[in-house]
Amino acid sequence: MRILVTGGTVFASRYTAEYFVSKGHEVYVLNRGSRPQSEGVIHINADRFDLGDKLKNIYFDAVLDVTSYNENDVKTLNTALGEFGDYIFVSSSAVYPEALPQPFKETYTCGENSIWGAYGTNKLAAENWLIANVPQAYILRPPYLCGKMNNLHREAFVFECAENDKPFYVPKDGKLPLQFFDIGDMCRFMEILLEKKPETHIFNVGAPETVDIIEWVKVCYGVLGKTPELRFVSGDIPQRSYFPFYDYAYELDVTAMCSLMPDITPFETTMQQSYEWFRNNREQIVRKPLFEYINANFAD
Asked: What's the CATH code, domain 2-146+181-204?
């Protein structure tokens, strides 16, 4: 297939581009050329808001839109495209209001989530535009993406704590559930959608089971052959000052996804792959001042 991937230089979009190159497809990436390009891709050097006719004369069997955040993003891209086949938009679990019953189901009425704010409502506006204007579009709603090429300061933060034999500061009792999705599994699911073309067009995607904070930290330390010294933080200290996730528990119902892709990558394998990438790409991590806060406010 001839495939267009938006972005193609960082984490989810870069992994997606390289995944489909590895499967033998002709992969175009759309970005401004500010970062090195992956081997094997065809680079369209352009700003997505100033595309002119750069896409009009290229037929794409599939458009994998990994980087759109709002209605204008998807509208502008689709206006610039010529004819194309399938369209897959990576949305977010942030489109579900937190007051809805859990696990969140694709059939729920979406709306504002007070934790995610405009990020969620903008993703929802993008979804709604696609539903109204691109009938062949598939919409994916992932939880926290993880795995190889993740340049966010999440598991990378835990790996650094483990490398330096630091204690790990756990919010409250450490039982906050977290739902993850391996980036490789997301690409495999995209591939399944393109092959099978199911009638359902909106899918929650993610691991069928959550892990709590303690389980997550132990797996990350375990990748390095270590056991964390856990220190529990109570009181009114803002969680995001010393920990990479919000104090927000949610779970997606991924039954529909599992009916098409029942086997997912074991969580331990995902974290191992994540550490292997991190170990050789530390400079790419978008760091947060977590260590600075911990060093200034918590005694070792």
From this structure: 3.40.50.720
Is the pTM higher than 0.85?
Answer: yes
Q: Which residues contact 174 (CB under 8 A, 6 or more apart)?
A: 212, 213, 214, 217, 230, 232
Crossing angle of helices 71-80 and 118-133, in 10° steps, is: 30
Confidence label for 235 from pLDDT (cuts 50, 70 and 90)? confident
Domain boundaries defined on the chain: 2-146+181-204, 155-179+208-250+265-297
What's the CA gap between 128 and 107, in Å, rounded? 14
Sequence length of the chain is 300
Note the pLDDT tens digit of each residue in 43-68.
999 999 999 999 999 999 999 999 99
**Whole-angstrom Cα distance, residue 56 to residue 47?**
15
The mean pLDDT value for 235-257 works out to 96
H or E stretch at 204: strand 202-204
Written as one letter, the residue type at 85 is G
Distances (CA, A) of 272 to 54, 72, 188, 267: 40, 37, 19, 9
* pLDDT on residue 299: 75
The domain made up of 155-179+208-250+265-297 has a fold known as: UDP-galactose 4-epimerase; domain 1 (3.90.25)
Q: 2-146+181-204 and 155-179+208-250+265-297 share one CATH topology? A: no
| Spatial separation of the C-alpha atoms in residues 267 and 79, rounded to whole Å | 39
Q: To the nearest 5 percent, what fractions of the chain are helix, strand and coil? A: 35, 20, 45
Q: Which helix (H) or strand (E) holds 191?
A: helix 183-196
- DSSP characters over 67-106: S--SHHHHHHHHHH--SEEEEEEE--GGGS-TTS-SSB-T
Give the alpha-carbon dihedral of 190, 193, 195, 199, to 10 degrees.
-170
